[in-house]
DNA sequence: ATTAACGTTTACGTCAACGTTAATGTTTAC
DNA sequence: GTAAACATTAACGTTGACGTAAACGTTAAT
């Protein structure tokens, strides 16, 4: 297994070392393995997770706490899968699943909203662009005389 | 002219009074008129601007400082328009216009990126949703026996 | 003309999300 | 085996974006 040291992860993810440790501290990423001397040893999966996190953070404007809830959701679903054969669904398990489903639906609605709004902003900027272009064109014509 | 007081603006924009004053303080919105006693007197346009600002902030995840630059851009373009007849385009004016155009193009590229990323996140969530649905379905089938 | 409701400025408080520094231990390269 | 480079924890600092409270002035309604 090829381990990554924290600075490697930092470079690959575009985050700082401090930020990576901070994310671990608040439980946003799982604690990595450690070397005998106590160095953190990461895998590629950590990098992938960090990239997803930053992406979701940027895109959805989520706070880290909100992201935690989202991550917890995915984890819960993984756990659910594993439990599945052993603990055949008690109603408690089912409620959990339904809660997960509900939350994802809410997230999707939120994303639709974001999409709508991004279009509005885009329109504003395009109109700005057009006006700038028009002004430049007038300028050029004026100049040609 | 119908003036709006700060609380009216707060209600219409969904912001707090503090936030509105803060936005004025950092130059994000133009200082409104004042009554003889010093009360702030707003117009509908202030409301519109504030809505645009919050929208852009939410959607693009811009900091207030980045938004300032964006606002400054629009303002510069308005000014450009007014200057147009008086100061026939010196090359300095043209450079300004070109800079504005360039910035809008950059903003549009940034928005494209956001769109791409939002799709990625959406996919992740959809896959989460599907897994939750599948699990629930298995549960229901199991239950039917 | 008073009073309740609303506004003003000033200033200190807060919270998230890190940055930075210090004191110390670990790996790696030569 | 000894630097140089890199890591660790702990703790304090910083910045943006407001919240909140105090002391006080203004408007609106009765």
Automatic annotation (TrEMBL), chains A, B:
Report domain HTH merR-type positions: 1-73
- Highest taxon of the source? Bacteria
**Which Gene3D superfamilies has this protein been placed in?**
1.10.1660.10
Where does this protein have coiled-coil stretches?
94-138
What Pfam families does UniProt report for this protein, alphabetically? MerR_1 (PF13411)
* Sorted UniProt keywords: Coiled coil, DNA-binding
- Which Gene Ontology molecular-function terms are recorded? DNA binding; DNA-binding transcription factor activity
Q: What is this protein called?
A: MerR family transcriptional regulator
């Amino acid at each position: 297994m090829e381990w990554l040291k924290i600075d490697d992860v930092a470079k690959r993810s575009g985050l700082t070392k401090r930020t990576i440790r901070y994310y671990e501290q608040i439980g946003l990423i799982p604690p990595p393995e450690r070397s005998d001397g106590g160095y953190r040893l990461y895998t590629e999966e950590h990098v992938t997770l960090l990239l997803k996190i930053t992406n979701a953070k940027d895109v959805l404007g989520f706070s880290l706490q909100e992201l935690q809830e989202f991550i917890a959701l995915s984890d819960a679903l993984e756990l659910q899968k594993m439990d599945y054969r052993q603990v055949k669904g008690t109603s408690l398990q089912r409620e959990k699943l339904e809660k997960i489903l509900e939350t994802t639906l809410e997230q999707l609605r939120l994303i639709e909203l974001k999409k709508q709004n991004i279009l509005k902003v885009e329109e504003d900027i395009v109109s700005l662009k057009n006006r700038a272009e028009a002004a430049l064109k007038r300028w050029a014509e004026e100049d040609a005389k």
